[in-house]
User: Fold these one by one.
Assistant:
Number 1:
Amino acid sequence: MNYQPTLDFARQLDETDPLRSYREQFFFPKHKDEKVLYFCGNSLGLQPRGVQAALERELDHWREHAVEGHFRGEMPWMYYHRFLLPQSARIVGAKESEVVVMNTLTTNLHLLMVSFYRPTKKRFKIIMEAHAFPSDQYAMESQVRFHGFLPSDAIVEVAPRAGEETLRTEDILATIEEHGDEVATVMFGGVNYYTGQFFDLKKITEAAHRTGAVAGFDLAHAAGNLPLQLHDWGVDFACWCSYKYLNSGPGGPSGIFVHERHGNNADLPRFAGWWGHDEGSRFKMEKGFIPMPGAAGWQLSNAQVLSMAAHKVSLDMFEEAGMDNLRAKAVKMTGYLEFLIENLNRKAQRFNIITPKDPEQRGCQLSILTGNEGKKLFDFLTENGVVADWREPNVVRVAPVPMYNSFEDCWRLADLLGRFSN
């Protein structure tokens, strides 16, 4: 597309945007009585306007029915996880039986590793990206120690080549092949939190399977950001949070994916809980865990109804907007912001975008390597009503989210960057 670096052009793009009405369905914080330029959806999404009503409905339901609310009404709590299945499945490209919403992200990652990291004396290694989000690093360290291994022996990290910021797919695949039958689990983030690089999950999964390993992904920065096809790619397991691109509130519930070839295997080891037990006999209160079919069999406790009610509001919006439509706008809008920043660099090379240029290798996020004045730049943006994200040592992360950001937002951000560089 032939982008133009003008405000009029940005407004023309907004006028023809088929998703523009969704912006009005969110609350924006204010800075000096004006809406902020919010580019932090990769950390916490904005609040949908429908959340308050959804929470009030559940509070009314609780007030009116008390414990009987588990069985009464249009959405009885006993079955609440079911009301999130169709939307969740479509967001990650899965069958409804392969997903469930429960707990929070790192809790779910540990629960899934119980099932999918089954090391032996020979096959015990975990392969992951270097500089993964710290929670993933800590989870993997504790998992290997729990099984009696040292992280230095059991965890293999794939790092960028010297002088490069992102990983090459061929290096990831070569590392998996190199360690071969010593690999138990390949566990990557779907999108690297720092660089914004989207990994080739299909190829990574295929490489893991060729060695006899399983492949799983932390999709915290991918779910709701990019179209995913977890079932068709053959991914073994995955988990994600809901408070970033899925706009479901701080500490919002997590989702998990378990491929159907595992989900119906009652002999697969797992940590069991009452809510994952066979629904038909759950209230008999008997010994002997019988897992529900599919991902639902990994549930431990009853639904977090209030947080799930907020999550459902956002999921329904995604269902209405459509991931393909959101992705089309994201590619266009992220490309426009990239164009504007590179246009500034023609005057002086100040902003080095380390996120891959190939749209197939990124979602909404652009990570800008800023040099020695990075924190000063970030503070300048904040003082001028921009909500972005600072990551040490010198990266500003910005995420033009298609559900609520506009092309004019992108233009105004670039205009501020230009003023700083002048």
Note: The mean pLDDT is 96.
Number 2:
Amino acid sequence: MTLKKALATPSGTPLLGAFIGLASPPLVEMAARGGFDFIILDEEHGAFSRLGTEECLRSARFLGTPAMVRTADANPTGIQAALDSGATGIQVPSVVTAAEADAIVAASHFPPVGRRGFGSTTSAAEYGFRQRSEVMGAAQAETVVAVQVESRRGVDQLTQILSVDGVDSVFLGTSDLSLDYGFPSPADQRMVDLLRELIPMIVASGKACGVHVTDLGQVNLLRSLGVRYFTVSVMALIVQSMRAAVGDFRSHVEH
């Protein structure tokens, strides 16, 4: 089953995605072998060149793990670059209007659905070894378009954003949402209350809902509200593991 179909299956087991912020193919391979359902390369906050993105996507593809790219912004050039490099889909941060969401959909799909340009020598086209009709057919069937709502403005316009055809999922950016609302952390009860309001709206629209989690204790609650996929940060997991290993070592040395 493709990632696009999995996201569109609300009764399925929730998916777990790994955000990766370093252009490291071995790190992508480790995440894929670790069992994550999909990977998101983070060009918004991470360190990626065009070649680095392509090499990481190639590593994921080698192991059969879907890999999306969170673009730096909604610029169509960046969206096309990610998809030409072989991304399964794109996730665009800080979307605040339906017009922006509509433009993102257009940039993500070939005509007649959208305005994405075709390049016969790209990684997505296997550098010319894949027929245009095959590339375009697969892209239409498999490309995931996700938008992030992570501001008061985005929340205020959520109903309009949800009306845009071609948006497969809406990702609630709890970190930036909590900042914009003045909450001390994404775990603040007021943030949880906001999620209780927003998630059912997304689910009712027929689109998948995604949420980044730092507290796995919230997963069952969010799942009950209809969250289809969760994400965690590989970098944060590495930090936690390092701290735990050093702490464990110190405790053995001191005792």
Note: The chain has a mean pLDDT of 96.
Number 3:
Amino acid sequence: MNDKVYVINFSNKIIMDKIMANETTQQHLIGRLPRLLGSGVDYNDAIEVITNMNEVADWSKGWEKVGERHQIRGDKAFEAGDLITAGEAYFRATISFHTGQSGNVEDPDEKLRVQTLQRKAYLKAMPYLNPKTERIVVPFENIEFPGNLRLPVNYSNKPVPCVLLNAGADSTKEEFFTLENEFLKRGLATCAFDGPGQGMTWQKMKLRPDFESPVGAVLNILENRPEIDSSRLGIWGRSMGGYAAPRVAAYDKRIKACISLGGYFDMISFWDTSSEVLLDILQFAFGATDRNNAREIAHGFTLKSSAEHITCPLLIVHSDQDNICPYSEAEKMLATVGKNAELVMFKGGNHCCDNKPAEVRPMMADWMSKQL
């Protein structure tokens, strides 16, 4: 029997050629729970979806069913005036829809349909979260893309520092809700966004290497917000965002501190040894016509000739067991940036250290808070 199970653990994506509903497969999927739980998925929801799978399509169907259940629960709470419960339920619906569409690179129309459910659920949640979320619109070139701006707990009308959050190649801004809370409770505002190639912005513009350009448009918006101290802006990114964040810091000196989590220095250096699953996702994000076209585009995703221009403090966080982005990429980043950078390696961590959130997330938030 030649059943293949493809699973990746950068972001919370699961893509399978063919899946058998047996104990081995279920254990395979359960092993990817750290990424899911880190984004706010309920453990019991995940187990429910996994144990009820009989075929590939049951993954997205299962998460959509869970999302609909949370949304109904949110509607009932809203009607009863239980707004805190409503906000939490709507977020549970959001992250469930997100999980269901993640990794779908074969059916853009279906991906968009579920992403639309995700967006609508989060729009319902935004006013009732603690702290609440404000949707911002960022004009960039000939398009616009959305962002989520949150101000710290107990904000008191005094300008505060802000950290921008950069997603991976097939992630979305809503996936950062739980991470945002780490920065928010330390007095930092957060701004997560779906730039080119990310979330529903993919429909308008594909992933591009010069992420300093769209992030510059976000910074333009934040500079004019009275709640934000424009002299204290930081940037954080994971995976592909862990490449984008240092690149932004190299070219835009408005950034005063930068964190790269599980990021790479030069994509093409590990392209030929990457899994087909990862390459499928990157090809989709690029909008490439085929694998050869995708490989050509990948040459542009490099910190060569840019990382040496980073002058703000840079924290590089990586693990020795990252099977998506080799640890050597972090070492290259450190060597190129030099004295302005520090590298923290977590032994036994997976990609982006998703299996070590209790150690990694507070450390990053504390570091950023001290820098800003």
Note: Confidence is low (pLDDT under 50) at residues 1-21.
Number 4:
Amino acid sequence: MKMRFFVCLAVVVVFFMSCDTQMSNKYKNPDMVRLITLDPGHFHAALVQKTMYENVDPLVHVYAPAGQDVQLHLDRINAYNTRPVNPTKWDSKVYIGSGFFEKMLDEKAGNAVVISGNNQKKTEYIVKALKAGFNVFADKPMAINTADFEVLRRAFETAQNKGLILYDMMTERFEIATILQKEFSMLLEVFGTLEKGTPDNPAVTKESVHHFYKYVSGEVLTRPAWFFDVTKEGEGLVDVTTHLVDLIQWECFPGRILDYKKDILIDSARHWTTDLTLSEFKEVTKQEQFPEFLQKDVTDNILKIYSNGELNYRLCGVHAKISVKWAYKAPEGAGDTHYSIMRGTKANLIIRQGAEQQYKPTLYIEPVAEAASYERTLMEQIKKIQVKYPGVELKKISRGWEVAVPEKYREGHEAHFARVTENFLEYLKNSNMPKWEVPNMIAKYYTTTKALELAKAAK
């Protein structure tokens, strides 16, 4: 009788082991990309999965420490899976524990690691993941100080030596107003050539205003408390500024391989704080008090965050200026805003996003000199744009022309994560990442981290 019991028990154990093996292998396909999400502390990690992708395994392994961050991430994935319109079909296999990173390296459950969270250890995670043979798809910023930059630079060497991809999420390249600004700047008859500019009148200016209180996927975003610690999130000069530096490189010197040692010269940089009351902090974090690790930044019960910054620099001899500002909450009906100008010898290309534009990024073409021949030329040249973007039109205004864009091109920030993920997946599949991408990522993070270094030294 006892022998029969042990035989039955062994059969049951083997059965469940077999089921577990079948479950763990049920999605595995050598031709598929298998995603791993590492310590998802920022909502951008979830936005990567707001869409399903061809040839991407729906089973995603998640490795994270215990806490609110991972739960918020899983809640967002569940919301995408259960939404009434076009639900996703992600299946999360989650490991939570203090040795989560080592567990990820040991199990090797996927071939592409998505990293979007606390930036203090991000560069270290990137290096170790690459050395273990994983491709890495990382949210910005991949480096938040000069020391991190040196580590990141070597990480790209590791990726090259191992035949792996290290790529960051430059979603702003997919904003239609920015795309069209770039397209018109490449029409010599319309834009002319890019001015060199001066420190007082740069050839390129980009300004961005963000808000701590915001909506994501229809819900008020709960931010982790560490987001307000610049030693973990990074200052404004190395965070959102990453996007603006990237856009200047991408628009002004398309396809050009940049050398950060020769092509970049930082002229000046400064930073300053946004002040947050305890009640405001409570509203966006759901925490009752400022945690101990933030007390260093608290004065008279006001949290002071170095989230603002300004940078003046030269890229290949062209003067550029970047400004990033954070406020607590946008005015009613507004949101994050972007201003951009590219000054050409024939016209200025300007993106505005204020109340007049109903807070939608809108591109304007403003000629340097009035001439009837310019309008005829512009009307002829826009046909080249319309081949790529049917429906784009020009609306005459007092200062020049507004570029009218059909709503179908206005996807919004969250949809841009699908676009940049599709790029990453294509590069992974076809090994066709443009040769300029890696050196220009290095140039970008050199610019931001060097600016921060100068801003701190100037105090």
Note: The first strand starts at residue 35 and ends at 38.
